[in-house]
Backbone:
């Protein structure tokens, strides 16, 4: 019997939502790590019972939790994220040099093949890896030591590495994104990195087409075509057909091309989803209407998906890691809001329903398809 | 035995209820108590003071015998009442909104 397990990180704890393949009736767990911020939780593709969670607090710092039983029980693992060598500085908001300081883990990306290997994207921006199930963490320092590192500046949420994409066809290729440095790629397993921002244009930086300095909000990939990437930038929805070597804008007829979340249909690699947000200063949907936009043509032509979503007086946001897709035959789409709702569409976006409506603000949503 | 009163989130993290007790060999300073506490409950490493600098996290406070020890040096002996176990060392999450 197939089913799904949705992992929800919120400002005040984590929740595990489970359902069968119909995705109509849901069980909702009690909060895990109640009172802590759960920036991200994700399951291992190689062992669905192995989950990792980033738990943090402004008072008590960072914890990493691991579950070996699908989220029923958890145990803390190592929480020491030490930058390699002498960390040096990046730019602060005012342009002055600022020492690299660890703040939190934004994103955990388990290996596609080994449950004990997991990557962590952190603030201040760096990529760490554990190969022992979280018992120890080591920085892949080649990224932070990229020559442009001292010029990286934080976005409004901090200098965070928030996106990690693993190429299922090439274990040496990893994509990451940093706000507000941009996207980077390694082709040697993390030893060396190159910026992949050609074609991005950002009006808010001194040189709009600079090699680095772009506020990339999220990148999504369909594993069947790992060279095709879709990006929600601060403004603009972008597409690359060559592994990030170049990008072109595909915002098309979107009502606004600002947003955070973006994802790709599991079985239709040209079908993509975004949630347009009014602007960088008004982080809610235009006109108070919560609309997911779907393109079946890989961008440019978009249709609003509204059935089951509030179409008046809705002023929530959908954050960058708060959208996910399952891999059931009828692809399920999920997203969570800063208003505490988690919505599911079991039919690829045609219709939506809330799974829960009153959680704390949702920071992240991931889904596991269970066979 | 030195009694330590942890804030609720750290009690949950350490999986303890109520106060905890730690043995401190030698002079009972704040630093020595924190060393002993982290040795008994490794999950608390990094949650009270920074892994590298060993400085108190900004929103953590230390109280003992109704006095604020948060800004004291960590190699100064704690009050006799704490050393004798008649008063706990309070580790507190600072009052800060949210």
Residues:
């Amino acid at each position: 019997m197939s089913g799904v397990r949705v992992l929800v990180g919120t400002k005040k704890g984590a929740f595990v939502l489970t359902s069968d393949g119909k995705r109509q009736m849901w069980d909702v767990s009690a909060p895990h790590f109640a009172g802590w911020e759960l920036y991200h939780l994700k399951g291992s593709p190689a062992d669905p019972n192995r989950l990792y969670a980033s738990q943090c607090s402004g008072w008590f710092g960072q914890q990493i939790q691991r579950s070996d039983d699908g989220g029923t029980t958890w145990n803390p693992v190592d929480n020491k994220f030490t930058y390699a060598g002498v960390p040096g500085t990046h730019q602060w908001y005012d342009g002055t040099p600022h020492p690299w300081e660890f703040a939190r883990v934004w994103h955990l990306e388990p290996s596609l093949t080994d449950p004990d290997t997991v990557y962590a994207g952190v603030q201040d921006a760096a990529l760490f890896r554990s190969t022992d199930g979280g018992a120890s963490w080591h920085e892949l320092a080649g990224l932070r030591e990229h020559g442009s590192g001292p010029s990286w500046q934080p976005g409004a949420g901090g200098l965070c590495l928030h996106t990690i994409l693993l190429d299922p066809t090439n274990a040496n290729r990893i994509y990451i994104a940093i706000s507000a440095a941009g996207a980077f790629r390694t082709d040697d397993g993390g030893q060396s990195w190159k910026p992949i921002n050609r074609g991005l244009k950002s009006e808010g930086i001194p040189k709009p087409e600079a090699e680095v300095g772009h506020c990339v909000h999220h990148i999504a990939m369909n594993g069947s075509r790992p060279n095709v990437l879709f990006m929600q930038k601060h403004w603009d929805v972008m597409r690359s057909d060559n592994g990030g070597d170049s990008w072109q804008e595909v915002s098309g007829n979107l009502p606004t091309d600002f947003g955070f979340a973006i994802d790709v249909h599991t079985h239709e690699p040209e079908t993509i989803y975004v949630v347009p947000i009014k602007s960088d200063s008004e982080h809610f949907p235009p006109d108070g209407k919560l609309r997911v936009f779907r393109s079946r043509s890989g961008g440019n032509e978009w249709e609003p998906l509204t059935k089951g979503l509030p179409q008046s007086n809705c002023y929530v946001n959908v954050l960058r890691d708060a959208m996910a897709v399952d891999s059931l035959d009828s692809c399920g789409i999920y997203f969570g809001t800063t208003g505490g709702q988690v919505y599911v569409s079991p039919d690829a976006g045609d219709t939506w329903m809330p799974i829960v409506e009153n959680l704390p603000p949702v920071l992240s949503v991931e889904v596991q398809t269970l066979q | 035995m030195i009694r330590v009163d942890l804030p609720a989130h750290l009690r949950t993290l350490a999986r303890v209820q109520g106060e905890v007790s730690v043995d401190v060999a030698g002079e009972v300073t704040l630093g020595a108590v924190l060393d002993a506490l982290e040795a008994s409950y490794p999950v608390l490493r990094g949650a009270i003071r920074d892994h590298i600098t060993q400085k108190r996290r900004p929103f953590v406070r230390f109280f003992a015998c109704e006095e604020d020890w948060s800004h004291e040096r960590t190699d100064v002996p704690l009050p006799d009442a704490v050393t004798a176990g008649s008063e706990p060392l309070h580790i507190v999450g600072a009052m800060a909104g949210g």
About this structure: The mean pLDDT of chain A is 97. Chain A touches chain B through 13 residues (CB under 8 Å). Chain A has one domain: 3-370. The domain at 3-370 of chain A is CATH 2.130.10.10 (Methylamine Dehydrogenase; Chain H).
